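Could you help me review a protein record that somebody else here produced? This is what I was given.
***
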Amino acid sequence: MRYDFDSVTDRSGTYSYKWDIPQGELPMWVADMDFRTAPEITEALVKRAQHGVFGYSTLPPEWSAAYRRWWRERHGIDYDDKMFIFATGVIPIISSCVRKLTTPAENVVIMTPVYNIFYNCIRNNGRNVLECPLDYKDGEYSVDMERLGAALADPQTTLLLLCDPQNPAGKLWDRETLAKIGELAYDNGVTVISDEIHCDLTDPGASYVPFASASEKCFDNCVVCVAPTKAFNLAGIQTAAAVVPNRRLRHKVWRALNTDECAEPNSFAVTAAVAAFEKGGEWLDQLREYIYGSKQIVGGFLRENIPEIRLVESQATYLLWLDCAGLGMPIHELWKLIRRETGLFLSDGSIYGGGNTHLRMNIACPRSMLRDGLDRLARAAQTVREMNR
């Protein structure tokens, strides 16, 4: 079966957070897709809805089995069924773990630039953000292990939030890098929370390395956050899982999620996840090909029309990290100008920490919308050029 990613779906009137914008604007910012989910998932949800009774739900064995089989067959790690804990989302997992695994005023390390909500998870709970900037050279990010080691060795540091694949730049961390991160954390008594929600959105031929698979120390000292929501565009269903191999740590996470009342599935959470992992593989593979093709369109367009903007090379996600240093304008001013002059709504890179010359663009949309966005970006760049004359 060939799936349709070119048709435009009107999302107005659906209470869409992404599309709750003035008429004429084009949102390419927040990370949800403008594609309909896999029809196999829709079919399963319609069948569940037609039942007509939406009482309290339990977690059947099929739920953890679907996760386990997917990670074993797709990603080469065989978690035990008992390691999976249901949660209503990855951010609830992270926030609950920050509260349970740390105490107020302790340090939580993040490697910036990184998903901006990590800051909220830390600061909203009275913990200190300890930024460990990634090295950025020749358009590529890497981890300065000496700098990270010093941050983890601080006796006030108790937690590390890792993003794998990395958001916003789409970097896939290799096994050696993950093993070294895991070793530094383990040896310093720092627990690792690995946010792997984008892991299924790799380029064709590329694959991510689960943090827990990198070494025994990684396996024994991590809380892994996974979900079908990014890959299958199901964020509004609110379904995710924490995978915790270590028994004692797993008990703490289980208690945290239950105490915070975010461990109970809604009527569609199990159905959506099981359908995605059991029936969505072919759809996902075609989606990955489509997004990869869109990346090539963006790269070619920028080289030909906006050489001042550099597309940072990525191997995963549908989020592109655009280095706009060549336009010579402070990034927040550029972000405002683009939206004001063209209606193109991107993400200001400065909110991710260390992205002071970057914008983030979400390209998970039909190609007609993508080309519209690129044309708007080109018009904004021309405006900047004229201003600089």
